[in-house]
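Hi V.,

You were right to ask for the full record rather than a summary. Here it is.
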Amino acid sequence: YEPNQDRQMVVTATAASLPDVLALLAECMEASDFDSISSDSGKDRRREALEGYDTGNIFVLLLVGDTARSKSLELSRPPALLVNFDFAGSVPLYLYQLHRRVDAATRIHSFFSPACNGGLAVPLMVALEDAGHEIPSDLMENWSKSDENKQEDEP
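Predicted structure:
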């Protein structure tokens, strides 16, 4: 995937993972091609970054923390690609975030960690199934392994 004016990308991350995500973006593209906004960003800074995205001058917009779901942050158009580096704290929150940022043409990649997000596996599988999407085999496998581990721990 090569982001450009017509195929922009939105990346979401928590403040804790921000340094790693910024380092990854810096390795992949020129600094002038991406920008980030967090809840700490001032009004002028937010407006500047949004204008860069809206005009196509910013190919990748990184939304940090709550800005990924913020009602006050409106993008002029949905991205071609959404990458969630940190899975939301609940499936309803995740679905809300998707509803706020994507359309049917947006490709979505979300990182799901069994160690951190394992308790969300079943509700996520239900949501995927209810929406008519295929459940990723890795998600099913990780859930199955965690379920087996729980059964082994019981007396």
